[in-house]
Amino acid sequence: MQKIDRDKEVLIDYSINMAKVFIRECQEFYPFAATIGIDGELIPLLNYDGNEFSSSVDVLLDLNNLLNSQLGNTKRAYALAYDVSITKNEKKSDALAVKIKHLESEEVVIYYFSYVSGADNNVEILDSWGEIQ
Predict the structure, then answer these.
(1) Phi, psi (degrees; rounded to nearest 5) at 10
(2) Is the dihedral of CA 17, 19, 25, 31 positive or negative?
(3) What is the model's pTM?
(4) Long-range CB contacts for residues 122-128, cutoff 8 Å, separation at least 24
(5) Residue spans per domain, the chain
(6) Average pLDDT score over residue span 28-46
């Protein structure tokens, strides 16, 4: 497996697992990120600007700017994860979006994982697909 594919797999697995924890515990989540350092180490990343009630859009923009500034300097890849509402086949559902950018690839891919959260707070991934930006 190529380094790019391995890094993507690690970032996606981390993002799905963290989103499940946040959904189980809080029924929602703010955008969060993870990076792969130049040395291959996974580094989780949350953003806190001092405001207890930041908008998700502001957090997403701040994280995106930070991640892009680090890419190539100290990081070789990143995943930016956020909650979205999608409509697919005329059916509306919640989904985890995971934007992945890698230093060794021109492509920026957003992977979507639709999910449901049951009464017992168990989170089930239903469907997944990717889109190249």
Answers:
(1) -60, -45
(2) positive
(3) 0.92
(4) 122/24, 123/19, 123/20, 123/23, 123/24, 125/16, 126/93, 127/88
(5) 3-132
(6) 94
